[in-house]
Write a structure and sequence with these properties.
2 domains; 6-stranded mixed beta sheet; Rossmann fold
């Protein structure tokens, strides 16, 4: 190599966990030696038996909890200092006294964004999830699927680089869940954001993700980090033999981790 030839610097990963552990003061180990990395713009699903620490990982990435050992970085910074991170949970957590558009604009209001800009960006976010027509309603006037769409719009309004999802569609019926999975894929492709989703549904994990991580039933660590080996998703994907073969393969990994 010519000594004057420039060396390209590899891009900073969207997130990195190195030997991360979480132990409570009473000695209970909630998470044990979890390590993985995700590139910018990736979509990763985290699955495993109940109580294995999936949500703990997500909370740490969001800066809501701290590891007792190991290291976590989000876009090269500690999670508490990272910018452009948004979360959605299984419960949409909408404020019942605020209208849909006011709920969506809340993160911008907390950041001190001017009212006119808040209104424009909230409307844009609602348009992206197909809910502009209900912007003046209160949460109790919406279906469960619509409330979750509002929650997603509230996350998108901050234009996140990293979107963290904790069983966001777990309480919904199967048809609505599949519709929202398709919407999530569309938004991910449009925005190029990095997405980490925690899910108990192996079909959902395989349908959405480029990689699936399977955690052990005993507070981690990871028992599998596997790529999903089939092409673009479409309306026929869920009945495709290749898709169902992948679901079966991940199911075997899940069973080896102590899952059903």
């Amino acid at each position: 190599m010519n000594r004057n030839e420039s060396h390209s610097t590899p891009p900073t990963p969207a997130l990195t966990l190195e030997e991360v552990q979480m132990t409570y003061p009473d000695g209970f180990v909630a998470l044990r030696e979890v390590s993985f990395q995700l590139e910018q713009g990736g979509l990763l699903a985290l699955t495993g038996p109940s109580g294995c620490g999936k949500t703990t990982v997500l909370h740490m990435l969001a800066g809501l909890r701290s590891a007792t050992s190991g290291q976590i970085t989000v876009d090269g910074s500690s999670p508490s200092q990272a910018r452009g991170v948004a979360c959605c949970f299984q419960d949409p957590r909408l404020l019942p006294w605020r209208t849909v558009d006011s709920n969506v604009a809340l993160p911008l209001e907390l950041e001190g964004v001017a009212a006119d800009e808040r209104g424009v960006r909230a409307r844009e976010a609602l348009d992206r999830v197909g809910l502009v027509d209900v912007s003046g309603r209160l949460p109790h006037q919406l279906s469960g699927g619509m409330r979750m769409r509002v929650s997603i719009a509230r996350a998108l309004v901050v234009r996140p680089k990293l979107l963290l999802l904790d069983e966001p569609f777990g309480a919904l019926d199967e048809v609505t869940r599949e519709q929202l999975d398709d919407e999530l894929l569309r938004l991910w492709k449009e925005d190029g954001m990095t997405v980490v989703i925690v899910t108990h549904s192996l079909r959902e994990a395989v349908y959405l993700a480029q990689r699936v991580l399977v955690m052990s039933g005993s507070a981690g660590p990871l028992v599998a980090d596997t790529p999903i080996n089939f092409g673009p998703r479409s309306a026929s994907t869920r009945t495709d033999h290749a898709f169902n073969d992948e679901v079966g393969r991940v199911q075997q990994l899940h069973r080896s981790a102590g899952g059903p």
